[in-house]
Write a structure and sequence with these properties.
Length: 68
């Protein structure tokens, strides 16, 4: 587990082993979330990179007759 220090400007540096593991490069965007008493950084994927991520999902949802 890596630890970081918050700078006086509230900046943190993501450790190199975490950057390599997550494939984070300069210019990548991260979404910052406050969740259950912690801070999480989630990589933001561009739409073309997400193509096919829901492949195989069941789309046969029962619908009301007026929604056909």
């Amino acid at each position: 587990m890596s630890t970081v220090t918050v700078s006086p400007k509230y900046q943190v540096v993501i450790p190199s082993d975490v950057r390599r593991q997550m494939g984070i490069k300069p210019g990548h965007r991260l979404e910052v979330l406050a969740y259950d008493g912690r801070v999480e950084f989630v990589p933001v994927e561009n739409p073309p990179a997400m193509r096919g991520c829901l492949k195989g999902i069941d789309t046969s949802v029962p619908r009301e007759k007026d929604r056909w």
